[in-house]
Amino acid sequence: MEEIRLKLNKAFQSEDISNGLVQSIHDAARSIELAFIEHSKSSKSSWFPKTWLGVDNNAWIKSLSYQAAVDSLLQAVIDVSSRGNGRDRDINVFVQRSLSRLLNPLESVIKNELSKRESTLYEWYSSDQNPLVVRQFVNIFESDPLFNSATAICCEGEPMNTSKSDLALLMLGLICLAAITKLGSTKVSCQQFSSMVPDIIGRFMDMLLEFVPLSKAYNLTKDIGLQREFLHTFGPRAAVPKLTNDHGLEISFWIDLVQKQLLRALDREKIWSRLTTSESIEVLEKDLAIFGFFIALGRSTQGYLSSNGLTDLDDSVNGIVRYLIGGSVLYYPQLSSISSYQLYVEVVCEELEWLPFYYGDVPSATTDTEGRQEVSKGEVISRVLNVCSYWMTSFIKYSSWLEDPSNVKAAKFLSKGHAMLSDCMKELDTSKNNISKDRGLPEPEEELDTGTELASFDKSLESVEEALVKLEKLLQELHVSSSNSGKEDLKAACSDLEMIRRLKKEAEFLEASFRAKAEYLEADASSGPLSPTGEEGRGKTGSRTNDIAAPQKSGSRVDNKRRPFWDFFGRPSGKNVEPALQVADQDVWMLYCMLSSFCAFKNTPTFSIEGIYKMHP
Q1: Rounded to an integer, what distance in angstroms lies between the CA atom of residue 70 and that of residue 102?
Q2: Which end of the chain is more exposed for a tag (fewer CB within 10 A), N or C?
Q3: pLDDT, tens only, 242-271
Q4: What is the DSSP-derived secondary structure letter of residue 559?
């Protein structure tokens, strides 16, 4: 057993501690198997059937050895949690009861298998072999610095850091459950036990939120190989967010998580290699990740409508669903290739299987005159618009990628999608008062009418485009007719033209961004961050994050990051506008100042922008 202990210690020092535990289970199972074989030699009757050619007569004992090793591992965790002056603490009792309930079917299988081989065999195992293996696992826990806080509670009379020890005990249990998950159900060969493991993991993760925020819990579970289990456990919570003090931080966490998850998937499948565009690979992948999320939302919406028998819908609602699913093709036409688009859709939908956009939604049914149950069409459509609006506004407000002008296509996509949703709500007379109050999602806010400011900005951008086209033609004519001495000046003018084009691209990004953000900036100024109502994700336990005073994420990054730059250029005077429109004015004013300063800096007698117009009116 000393050799086994050394192997366990060596395996436990590996980079992934749960992977080390898997090897520990293999080694423990082998030692148990050898102990059974050795004990059989001293038995009066053979446990093994007669030898048959081509038959593994030890198969039953190999399977039982793995069952016994897993049983010993979890008993070691129970042993750690049930000793000392902390054994009656809530978290200790939770761990003991949860793991004991999980072990019941496994111990029953072990007892039945050994008892039918020999009446005294189970007694020998439970009094001799099992305590020995349990002790080996406990020794490993006590010798690992990661679990010092959990194992320290075994000492009577010593002061405890209860929060730290509780968290360490939970993580000890989760790491052991992660190792059992990686070992696989085939080795354990106990269907009832294997079917209970995911539920116990979910309970441990729910309890974990009593001690750490959601983002920290994700990192802890990801590090031990339970990322998939975390997503399936808290996916409903992402779809139906909880009402917490740090609600904005949680939404930001989910947005960041799905973006990175989709980005990794798209990079793995090299979707970008099928497209030929002027964007860099980084920009292209980020755009495709955002588009991909809304493809998954659109397909889920399509299925939700179909499952409620709504196939014949208004053009506006159908238009929104079509835009969510196929809007990416408008900005990247190369995706229209059937093979490319099909692969793209499969990748993003598979990656987001854990996110139930319409989780737990069962629309109320009404009874018609003939006694048949009918689902309210208005309620279903309201739910669809509410869900789509929630995710649109969440990306607009919390996606850091949209702050980069390079992602102008994604910003335009979201801006147009939000406008379509607002128009649809008005057309169908779906006001916020008609939206169900118990679905757990923020109510869509009314669109802000920016009036003449936006119209003026649109005209300005059109004028810039016309001017750029005209300038390009003029420069081409001058290039043909100019002498060699003037070509250097022409190159400088062409460089100026490229600079103006880049400024125009930034202006387009600003337009798409502030159009979508304007109303939410105003809402933040008047009523604070978005707050959903009611329903929780799993609803099993409360969350410590409710009580943690975390700084609120500003509804507007624009206020924090760009306003000093605008102030440097100054502001037009003599005009009072609403807060959201001030942001729009600042964006336009920034563009105006940049263009003016640029032209003034580059002003030359012959080849300035104004000079070209004078030469060629």
Answers
A1: 11
A2: C
A3: 655 567 888 999 999 999 999 999 999 888
A4: H
β-strand partners of 374: 366
CA distance 407 to 413: 10
- Classify the phi-psi angles of 451: left when phi > 0, otherwise alpha if psi is within -120 to 50, otherwise beta: left
Handedness of CA 74, 75, 80, 86 (dihedral sign): positive
Q: Residues with Cβ < 8 Å from 260, sequence gap 6 or more?
A: none
How far apart CA 39 and CA 118 sit, in angstroms, is 12
118: CB partners within 8 A, 6+ apart: 43, 45, 47
What's the CA dihedral at 284, 286, 288, 289 to 10 degrees? 160
Distance CA 534, CA 570 (A): 45
Distance of CA 577 to the CA centre of its chain: 38
Please state, in angstroms and rounded to a whole number, the distance separating the CA atoms of residues 113 and 377: 57
CA distance 394 to 249: 11
Q: Which whole-number Å values give the CA distances from 145 to 4, 74, 312, 598, in the listed order?
A: 20, 19, 62, 61
pLDDT of residue 346: 93
**pLDDT, tens digit, for every residue of 382-423?**
899 999 999 999 999 999 998 888 888 999 999 999 999 988
Confidence of residue 493 (pLDDT cuts 50, 70, 90): low
Decide the pairing of beta strands 373-375 and 365-367: antiparallel
Q: CA-based Rg of the chain, rounded to a whole angstrom?
A: 32
Q: Which amino acid is at 568?
A: F
Whether the Cβ atoms of residue 111 and residue 67 lie closer than 8 Å to each other: no
Strand, coil or helix: what is 120? coil
Cβ-contact 565, 506 below 8 angstroms: no
Cα–Cα distance for residue pair 227/264, rounded to 1 Å: 14
Provide mean pLDDT across the span 234-248: 76
Question: Do residues 515 and 450 touch, judged by C-beta distance below 8 A?
Answer: yes
Q: Taking residues 216-242, report their average pLDDT.
A: 90
CA distance 499 to 506: 11
Number of residues in the chain? 617
For residue 6, what are its two tokens?
Answer: 């050394």
Question: Which pLDDT score is estimated for 301?
Answer: 94
The residue with greater pLDDT, 49 or 302, is 302
pTM (two decimals): 0.69
Which structure tokens are listed for 507?
A: 């202006």
Evaluate if residue 38 carries a pLDDT over 80: yes
Does the pLDDT value for residue 54 go beyond 70?
no
8 Å CB contact between 133 and 72: yes
Q: Of 309-313, 345-349, 508-512, where does mean pLDDT reach its minimum?
A: 508-512
Q: Where are the domains of the chain?
A: 2-41+57-233, 253-366+373-601
d(CA 394, CA 218): 20
